[in-house]
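Q: I have 177 residues here and want to know how they pack in 3D. Can you give me a structure?
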Amino acid sequence: MAPVAANPLIQVTPGLMIWTIVCFLITFYVLKKFAFGRIQQTIDERRKRIREALDEADRARSEAQKLVEEHRATMAEARGQAEEILAEARKVAESQRRRLRDELEEDRQRRLEETSRQIEAETARSLAQIRREVADLTLLAAAKVTGKVLDSEDQRRLIDEAISSLDFSVLEEKTPA
């Protein structure tokens, strides 16, 4: 006789064991035929999607890195262009400043020369007027001293003698140049 186990679940019953194995094999066959394939297919699809997502993330990361590098290069190029533009603007400003200074200097020189010419012309005109007045005064003085009016030839001779005796060079030397 077989020893009796205290718990009926632990007892070895050959009929029950056979039916349990048969039920397990039938359940395993049905699961293998209908469930395991689909479950494995779902797992494989999910694995594939995860792998594709990881690859896409790697591509996106490398593309983002490339875009960052392009952006940095573009910014460096833009800074360089901005510096070139500033340097060119400074050159243009300096050139315009120099040109304006030269134009102002030329204008100043031209005005000085024009003023100088006007002063010389005015001086010459004043000297001519002084000579005429001296000649008239000389004629008047000669007429009063001699008591007679001189003819045109005598007047001319006396005027030339009076004018030649006067020193106009002092007046001409004092004129500003």
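Q: Anything worth noting?
A: The longest helix spans residues 14-146. Helices lie at 14-146, 152-165, 169-173.
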